[in-house]
Specification:
The structure is a homodimer. Chain A is about 40% helix and about 20% strand. The first copy, chain A, is built from eight helices and ten strands. A seven-stranded mixed sheet of chain A has the order 6-7-5-4-8-9-10. In chain A, strand 2 (about 60-65) and strand 3 form a beta hairpin. The radius of gyration of chain A is 20 Å and the shape is elongated. Residues about 1-5 of chain A have low confidence and may be disordered.
């Protein structure tokens, strides 16, 4: 379940990188050229020495007295996360969550291309959401043979999750992003991220009671 | 933006608590009575001394040579997060994401009660999803005056987010859980959690390239 097995970088560090990436993307859009670890620390609510340690894991990109070059650091983090290339995505389950994910603007245009969605509901099959067609789940094997699919997003009811995860594994998909409310365990050769929406809600409860 | 201002506990610690809570809930369901920090460390991919340090922030619940009592530790974390009581929730925006959140089984039955959803689309107003009615957004002020609403979930298109956040603030709602792809900044007296679905997707890209 750990991401650190082969890379030597701890999971905690990897999980902070998307936050740095998002922050640097915003700075870049605002025209900022450089940023200090002190400013990053303040804006991101993280310890400045931790930020420096994190970025040093990858060789360090800062210069004493200057700080970090925003674009270079962002590009370096993209490379580390391997989000500097395109990934083909399919979505299994085209209910409300699946259709929300077909529309989700944040990864579309970021190198993630949703090729198709799959469902077993005849009322959905053949319809299109955000330019992406919903296909019969029985067609998934042929589809995956004909397309290079990297990532499968699971957005099915919980009863179907484990069968779908097994199917995606059999079809040679490299990664599963699971939104269903049952965890999928990592399996040989297939990376897995289970989304736990509740975690943020619990942090929110803490915050509202400690403001 | 930090959660540590008044509590003295760092945001990083608070953000690990839902993970501990989820893990302990699973252990409890499997009938486990106690757990060591070593086992927690292995199962959660976190450093054992970090786990002990985290739990010591709240006074410590472990006993040397015994480990932690699963139910007591879970209850203690529920108290710290303030999820040991009921919260009334409304959802603004009843598109695919909003309706997925009306159905989401993980917080329903966990003390979070979705009272209603609001939208401006006439095709949705008056319909019901998972026993929850979608009301005209123009009724939200009256609704909030008549009900004790704790949390507002924003699931609108990005153009509407900031107006909705201002409206919720004016209506005296205590917390905003924002799923729209534009960040809401924390405002006086209102706690905010912005959901960044992409972060998990980026970690997944790292994992699939480092397996």
């Amino acid at each position: 379940m750990s991401v650190e097995s082969n890379s030597g970088i701890s999971e905690a560090v990897i999980r902070r990188l998307p936050k740095y990436h998002r922050y640097l993307t915003d700075l870049e859009l605002m025209g900022e050229k450089k940023v200090s670890s002190a400013k990053m620390s303040e804006d991101l609510c993280l310890n400045a020495s931790q930020i420096r340690r994190d970025l040093n894991c990858f060789g360090g990109f800062g210069q004493q007295g200057y700080g970090y070059n925003v674009s270079k650091l962002k590009d370096a983090i993209s490379k580390i996360l391997h989000i500097d290339r395109q990934y083909n995505v399919i979505i299994i389950g085209a209910g409300n969550m699946g259709r929300a994910l077909m529309r989700y603007p944040y990864y579309k245009g970021m190198g993630f291309k949703v090729l198709a969605a799959f469902d077993s509901n005849p009322a959905l099959i053949g319809t299109t959401t955000s330019g992406c067609e919903i296909l019969d789940i029985s067609k998934i094997e042929k589809f995956c043979a004909e397309h290079e699919v990297d990532i499968g997003i699971i957005a099915t009811p919980k009863e179907a999750v484990l069968d779908v995860a097994d199917l995606l594994t059999k079809l040679g998909i490299h990664a599963i992003w699971n939104f269903a409310p049952v965890d999928v365990y990592e399996r040989d050769g297939v990376a897995v991220e289970n989304v736990h929406l509740n975690d943020g809600l619990y942090v929110l409860c803490y915050k509202m009671n400690n403001l």
